[in-house]
Amino acid sequence: MSTQHKGHEYLKLEELFNKSKERIGKDREELENISPTYEEIAIELENQIANLDGEYEKLTTEMTMQREELHREIDNAFNQMVLNTIDTGHEKLRSVACLIEEQIWTCGVTADIKCFNIQGVLQKTIQTKSRKNPSDIAVYKDGALLYSDWKTKKVYKVKDDQTEEIIRLQGWLPGNLCVTSSGELLVIMLSENETQAKVVRYSGSTVKQTIQFNNDQPLYSGNKKIKYITENRNLDICVTDWGAGAVVVVNQAGKLRFRYTGHPLAGRNERFKPSGITTDSQSHILTSDLYNHCIHILQSDGQFLRYIDNCDLKSPYGLCVDSNGRLFLCELFRGSVKKIKYII
To answer: Are residues 49 and 106 in the same domain?
Structure first.
């Protein structure tokens, strides 16, 4: 091949190379312009996928909650049932105490303490010594009635239509009552200046124990707000402290075991304000939640178990369980006592 021909071939190759290089450069510029657009589209698609995942998760969570609520309502329909309703005629019904169905004692905001049978027939009416409403009522195992009178600062025992003063206080006002399994009496007390509260155990008229502090801190709020009391089967002492929004549980020696401050309830968002309290044969603790219109059931260690909330309850207040394990509760403003069957 001649030198001249080789030169022509070289020029053609050089021209082809330059044209290819120029075309590649243009393609690169176009790709650089297009690439951010594709990246933006990819990012947007990833965001949409993430949003879809979030919406799906929310939807499945909501469906799960609705399914659980439905199961709970079905369970409640079978496990909770109102067996009897007694219209007591009390304007505001605060306490109920009974061991047998033929003696259901009730009191409210008047001086009248009324006794009904399970059919709702009034059996007897007793008036307090002060002609003021009693702080609370309780029943001894022999059927004798106890009531605390904040006006006279005394606790009375009524049996066979005879009234006997068994406790007289100075500087303190008697509040709610509980007869223990051993026949002793637990009394909630409030100082006259309404700054301190305590639990005092009596054997007859003799003070056996005072429960007021835990590590030098007050166990109970010092105010005149609701403080119902009961003894559990394991001998724990359980007190509702309305002012603190808590159930306070101490052991037999008066040492703090736990405080229960409520449990979330779907669709019911009022603050937990416990009023009445009782326990059953399995050592479950039952406490009434006035503003959320339900009963909380706890294990003896304070763990929440379930609610009683489908029995058309309205402002539940005082509670008691009779000797046969039946639950009786007061509806504060309706003035009715309901006997309820419940299964854990």
So the answer is: no
Residue 103: CB atoms within 10 A of its CB come to 18
Residues 4, 146, single domain; the answer is no
Region 52-75 average pLDDT: 68
Rounded Cα distance between 180 and 183, Å, is 5
- 11/17 Cα distance (integer angstroms): 10
Query: Which residue matches tokens 């009531």?
Result: 147
> Which range has the worst mean pLDDT, 35-44, 76-85, 247-256, 280-289?
35-44
Q: Tell me the pLDDT tens digit for each residue of 286-332.
A: 999 999 999 999 999 999 999 998 899 999 999 999 988 899 999 99
Q: Are residues 317 and 264 in the same domain?
A: yes
Q: What is the spatial distance between Cα 279 and Cα 40, in angstroms, rounded to a whole number?
A: 64
| Start-to-end CA span in the chain (Å) | 106
Q: Which residue bears the tokens 């100082």?
A: 191
Range of the domain at 66: 1-81
Distances (CA, A) of 27 to 22, 33, 175: 9, 10, 91
- Tally the domains of the chain: 2
Question: Quick one: 176 and 28 in the same domain?
Answer: no
Please indicate, yes or no, whether residues 255 and 311 belong to a single structural domain of this protein.
yes
| Coil, strand or helix at 42 | helix
Where does the pLDDT of residue 58 fall: very low under 50, low under 70, confident under 90, or very high at 90 and above? Answer: confident
- 162 and 231: one domain? yes
Instruction: Tell me how far apart the alpha carbons of residues 317 and 332 are, in angstroms, rounded to a whole number.
Output: 6
CA atoms of 113 and 148, how far apart (whole Å): 11
The pLDDT assigned to 324 comes to: 87
Query: Can you tell me the distance from the alpha carbon of 315 to that of 293, in angstroms, rounded to the nearest whole number?
Result: 5
pTM, two decimals, is 0.78
Contact 229, 176 (CB under 8 A): yes
| Euclidean distance between CA atoms 66 and 160, whole angstroms | 55
pLDDT of 42:
59
**DSSP per residue, 179-197:** E-TTS-EEEEEEETTSS-E
The SS3 call for residue 281 is coil
What local confidence, expressed as pLDDT, does residue 235 receive?
98
- Structure-block tokens of residue 40: 């933006």
